[in-house]
């Protein structure tokens, strides 16, 4: 076969492949799509996933089914999506747990957050809030830190509930910043943590604004500080930890969508375009803002680079906080 004939065959094959890919993207989706989540109903991830599911149903004409696979810092959900067919019908709405901090928290992971997934689209960034029970004797971060120090020195450390990796890391950063002794109780999710905080079973937690706002506005708990560079528009009266003098207690989480590795690029591109369109709409911006978060529109390549940088950043945070690997 001459070089010219070989090139013709190659061009024909590429054209056929391109045509097949375009046709696939145009017909996708033709059946319901599953969104696998690492956190329970009532969490910020669950809330924004249900919002996206409803908006994508309108734009793509197919049902999006929510599948909450909770536990193990997102490992259970990540394994389920890793093992799914790469056809665009199983997606993961993930966070900085499964796709950020887990490599630094676990000696062995049953998945690779970069190699086993296709980055689809960013969704939002959301900070943590230092929240205490309503009868806690402090109303600001400075007096909270003073009391926490005194209680630890007296052998009666404050009790903290954590519902995800972000709340745990924020707590460890707080411990380091104030040289505190704390009793830490892990929960399966923030809704359960907030229930016990309202009931007075624990002294405080770090929660995303979405999970805590209703309880804060209802006077059932008190918020003292926000782990972001600026205040949250949802709760503008709550100062940042930096304003309170603890700039090292800074942590912003993220939510993003991923597909199994080797999912067709045309499907990834279409999903990315649809999700970014939702986030750019007035309705999308308003919803994310009401969650106490900010939108995180990205291309697949940008999200892939972002995940790599977050894995490195969380490795440094976890090391600085002294959290041992599991």
Automatic annotation (TrEMBL):
The lineage of its organism: Bacteria, Pseudomonadati, Pseudomonadota, Betaproteobacteria, Burkholderiales. Residues 1-25 form the signal peptide. Gene3D superfamilies: Bordetella uptake gene, domain 1 (3.40.190.150), Periplasmic binding protein-like II (3.40.190.10). Belongs to the UPF0065 (bug) family. This is Tripartite-type tricarboxylate transporter receptor subunit TctC. PANTHER family: BLR1237 PROTEIN, TRICARBOXYLATE-BINDING PROTEIN. The keyword Nucleotide-binding does not apply. Keywords: Receptor, Signal. The keyword Signal applies.
């Amino acid at each position: 076969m001459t070089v010219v004939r070989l090139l013709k065959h190659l061009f024909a094959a590429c054209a056929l492949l391109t045509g097949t890919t375009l046709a696939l993207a145009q017909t996708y989706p033709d059946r319901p799509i599953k969104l696998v989540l690492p956190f329970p109903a009532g969490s910020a991830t669950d809330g924004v996933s249900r919002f996206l599911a409803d908006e994508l149903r309108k734009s793509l004409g197919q049902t999006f089914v929510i599948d909450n696979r909770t536990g193990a810092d997102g490992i259970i959900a990540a394994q389920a999506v890793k093992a799914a067919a790469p056809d665009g019908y199983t997606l993961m709405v993930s966070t900085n747990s499964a796709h950020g901090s887990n490599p630094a928290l676990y000696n062995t992971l049953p998945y690779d957050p970069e190699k086993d997934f296709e980055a689809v689209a960013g969704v939002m960034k959301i900070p943590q809030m230092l929240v205490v029970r309503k009868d806690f004797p402090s109303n600001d971060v400075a007096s909270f830190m003073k009391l926490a120090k005194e209680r630890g020195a007296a052998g009666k450390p404050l009790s903290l509930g954590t519902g995800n990796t972000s709340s745990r890391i924020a707590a460890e950063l707080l411990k380091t910043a104030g040289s505190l002794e704390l009793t830490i109780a892990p929960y399966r999710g923030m809704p359960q943590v907030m229930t016990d905080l309202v009931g007075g079973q624990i002294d405080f937690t770090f929660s995303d604004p979405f999970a805590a706002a209703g309880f804060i506005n209802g006077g059932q708990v008190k918020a003292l500080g926000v782990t972001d560079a600026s205040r949250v528009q949802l709760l503008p009266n709550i100062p940042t930890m930096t304003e309170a003098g603890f700039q090292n207690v800074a942590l912003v989480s993220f939510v993003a969508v991923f597909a199994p590795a080797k999912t067709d690029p045309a499907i990834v591109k279409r999903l990315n375009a649809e999700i970014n369109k939702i986030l750019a709409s007035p309705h999308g911006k308003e919803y994310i803002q009401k969650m106490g978060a900010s939108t995180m529109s990205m291309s697949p390549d940008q999200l892939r680079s972002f995940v790599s940088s977050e894995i490195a950043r969380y490795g440094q945070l976890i090391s600085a906080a002294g959290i041992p690997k599991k």
